[in-house]
Structures are given as C-alpha cells and as structure tokens.
C-alpha cells in the first residue's frame, strides 16, 4: 500500500504540467495566488477532518514561526517558478531541476549539516555539475529555472528535516501565513477588473479552486507512502515525476530536445544512477548491521 501511495504522488506530480497548461489564459502570478489561497482552505479542512485541528499550535514556538515563514516563502517561490516554466514552454528545463534536486540535497547536507560524502557521491555531484555547465556554455545562459526549482526545494526539504514536523500540518501553516497576501492580491485584481476569477468561464474557475486539492493530495500521499516503505524505494520512485515531465515536454508539447540537451541530461542521469547505487549500497550495509545473522 505504501508503494501505491508514493507511486500516485510521483505520477500526479509528473503530469501536473497538463493542469497548469489548462490555465494558460491566467497569468502565472495570479495562478500562484489562487494556488496558495485554495491550498490553505483545502489543507485546513483536511486537517480538521482528520483530527489535527490544533496544527496552529506549531506557531507558538518562535523558532517554528520563523522557519515556517521561510519555508512558506521557499515553496511559494518554487510553485511560481514551476508555473512560469509551464506557461513559457520550458517543461524540459523544469524536469532538469527535479532531476538534480537529490544532488542539491547532497550538497546542502555537505555544506550545512557537515555530512560526509563517499567517493561515489562526490563523482555523482561532479557529473551533475558538468551536466549543468554543458548546457550553460552551449546555450550561453544559465538554466535558472532548473536551479531555482532544485535549490528552493532542496532548502525547503533541509529546513523541514531540521524542524522534524508533520508535512501536512506544516503545509497548512505555511499556506495560512501566505494566505492574506494571496487573498489581497486576488481581491485587488478583481477590483481593478483584471482578475481571472469569473472572467474565463466556470471551467477556469473550477481549475483555480481545485488547485488547492491538486497541491495537497500528492503531498499527503507521499507522506503516507514514506511512512510505510523504505527510503531506498522512495529514492528510486522519485525519478518518475521528472521523467514524466520530460516526456510530456518533448512528446506532448513539442519542446526542443537537442543534442546538447541529450549530453547534459546524460551526465545528470549518470550522476543519478551513481547516487542511487550509493544509496542502495548504504541501505544494504545498514540492514546487515541492524540484522546480523
């Protein structure tokens, strides 16, 4: 059951570009505002329903308040960048961001948590950096969408790891903290007559409202899956999302995938194979130590 939960989460994350493409008449900033607003409504309702109505108690701790403001800002920036990437036909670059995210997490662990890397992990990190460098030099621009997506989500995960809070409860607080700003933006747009809500038909309105559910559901599924299956399996499953994004960008939306892309992604894929192998070996070693015959 845990594998099914995780699989559903990563598949939904992988096909989310379709959802944001359907909202093409709406500016990315306004989609973000609705996503934050309706996520806050949906997650709060779910938390109350499942008996976690006291999730706002997280704010009583000053350190929690500061950390959740930071993580809320990071996830908001991540969401905006992702929506912007879809709207500007850069899904392939967005997929690169989520491919290199595990390697960014390794780098953050090295710098912030003073974790030590083995030889294989160092090689994986260098290969990923080479992949990003190749596409930067060949196209003459830094793949900033990929770097912002991976960097913001990597920092988000790092702070969440250090806080050790329930994923859904903390998301509820994060979105509630951002909700007044998002709500004010939506109201201001409507007052100025430039708002998308009630302007493009009931279909667009429904998509904006359900953006909250489409945001929270995969996170909930992921949390349920992570509790039930080994971390090594989660590590392999997580590549489903960027793979689906890459395939959709190239096959469905006909984004360019040049030889330079192939070489750059090739280095990143090699890095991920090495990283996955290293994680698998470490997990097997830990299991052997924990369960001696």
Structure report:
- By secondary structure, this protein is an all-alpha fold.
- Helix content is 80%, strand content 0%.
- The model is unreliable at 289-293 (pLDDT under 50).
Number of domains: 1
What characterizes the major β-sheet? Answer: none
* Arithmetic mean pLDDT: 86
* Structural class based on helices, strands and sheet pairing: mainly alpha
End-to-end separation in angstroms reads: 29 Å
Quick tags:
single chain, 293 residues, mainly alpha
Short description:
The protein has 293 residues and is an all-alpha fold. It has helices at 2-22, 28-49, 62-87, 91-111, 119-139, 144-163, 167-191, 202-209, 211-228, 231-237, 240-252, 259-290.
Describe the secondary-structure layout.
Blueprint (H helix, E strand, L loop, with lengths): L1 H21 L5 H22 L12 H26 L3 H21 L7 H21 L4 H20 L3 H25 L10 H8 L1 H18 L2 H7 L2 H13 L6 H32 L3
